[in-house]
Specification:
The chain is mainly β and about 240 residues long. Helices cover about 10% and strands about 25% of the residues. The protein has one domain: Sandwich (Protocatechuate 3,4-Dioxygenase, subunit A), CATH 2.60.130.10. Strand 5 and strand 6 form a beta hairpin. The chain is globular, with a radius of gyration of 19 Å.
């Protein structure tokens, strides 16, 4: 097969992702590798099933306001929506997208979260959905609050939502997070500062989308996830994408 038959080769910009060792982000000092990396090929079990079936998605799985107890969570109601795309801008259907986040006060429902903000008894903080035929996804949730974290004396995480994207099998998983347009804490976050290019930071910021906002109900933010290529989203667990 010729190069033309295979399609164009997309060269990746290795500077798009941060260095593994970034002292400003304290945790990286113990996690960063100090020996040469070894490339390991994927196994058959990683490239194939098991896969997540559509019948396993519940009616309220993508509604974080109601899916924990059936009673509404407290906070500013928002829609987070977008598309999962390949390097050519084509939507990827049937992708399992999961999210998790802090509540409106900036606290996670986790036993090790010791922040003083109260827990919302009606907010579990996680949801899931499958992308539609055009790669689209949508979640109804509350805007997460910012919160302090023990990195330096007074570091705060911006408002953000974590997103997990699964491929054709559970061994293919990418994790990223989105921030929100206009948040002044984005520029101050030591984790964000590890990303060397402003354009790479910009694709992690979900812009306000008034076209999808619901009057007298909720605002909307649009966050597309690009799996591969030069414009791929920054993924926390793998540089190359799927």
């Amino acid at each position: 097969m010729t190069t033309t038959d295979q399609g164009p080769l997309y060269f990746r910009d290795r500077d798009w992702h941060p260095a593994a060792y970034t002292p400003g982000y304290k945790t990286s000092m113990t996690r960063a590798p100090f020996r040469p990396l070894v490339s390991l090929g994927s196994t058959l079990s990683e490239e194939t099933g098991p896969a997540f079936g559509q019948a396993m998605i519940g009616e309220l799985d993508n509604n974080l306001i109601m899916n924990f107890t059936g009673q509404p969570a407290i906070g500013e109601r928002i829609i987070l929506h977008g598309r999962v795309l390949d390097e050519n801008g084509r939507g990827v259907p049937g992708v399992l997208v999961e999210i998790w986040q802090a509540n409106a006060g900036g606290r996670y429902r986790h036993k090790k979260d010791g922040y003083l903000a109260p827990l919302d008894p009606n907010f579990g903080g996680c949801g899931r959905t499958l992308t539609d035929a055009s790669g689209g996804y949508e979640f109804l949730t509350v805007r997460p609050g910012a919160y302090p974290w023990p990195n330096r004396v007074n570091d705060w995480r911006p408002m953000h939502i974590h997103l997990s994207v699964f491929g054709s099998g559970f061994g293919q998983r990418l994790i990223t997070q989105n921030y929100f347009e206009g948040d002044p804490l984005i520029a101050r976050c030591p984790i964000v500062q590890t990303i060397g290019q402003q354009k790479a930071i910009d694709v992690l910021v979900a812009p306000l989308d008034m076209n999808r906002a619901i009057p007298m109900d909720c605002l909307a933010y649009k966050f597309d996830i690009v799996l591969r290529g030069r414009r791929q989203s920054y993924f926390e667990n793998r540089k190359e994408g799927l």
